[in-house]
TrEMBL record:
Keyword set includes Coiled coil: no
Name the record gives this protein: Type II secretion system protein GspG C-terminal domain-containing protein
Database matches in InterPro entries: N_methyl_site, Pilin-like
Gene3D superfamilies according to UniProt: Glycoprotein, Type 4 Pilin (3.30.700.10)
Keywords from the named record: Membrane, Transmembrane, Transmembrane helix
Pfam families: N_methyl
NCBIfam families (UniProt xref): IV_pilin_GFxxxE
Segments passing through the bilayer: 20-41
Amino acid sequence: MRELKKRIGLDKSDKSGAGFTLIELLITLAIIGVLATIVFLNVKNSRENTYYSRASWETTEIAKALWIYLQEYGDYPSDANRGLPPGLEVYLPAGNWPDGPWPGSVYDWDNWDDPDQPGKKIYQISLRFCPIGGPLSACNFPKASWAQNFNINSALYYCLSGSCRSHVASPPSYPGKCINC
């Protein structure tokens, strides 16, 4: 009977061969480390993708609210610096407006005179990552590849009309990303 227990692994009286070798433990730890790294990177990318999806949905909702505002009042609201224009909240779904999805980001309604085309306007919804006037060290840019070259006036923006850009004081080629262009 004891021989049968040994064969199927139920006999614990013989201690020879019990436990793990140092090599087996190191290999197991290395595998766990690689798997943990893969999971961590996927969670980080998932978070960025979620932030971007939320920003895309929210800017679309703001654009719809602005369209309703335009229909009701005959014109777009005035520019709002680092916020949404007063009166727009009644057309928006419940939310934490004007805060954006990325930590420290804020929505900004831009109603600008186009510096390159006199008499034309730029209407866009921007998502800003820096406080007004900086410093650059206070900015909290997305960790996505499209934001690698972002600077103090960079923005993720949704263009309603005009020659949209990251910032009115910057050329259209200044680093930024248009959601719907």
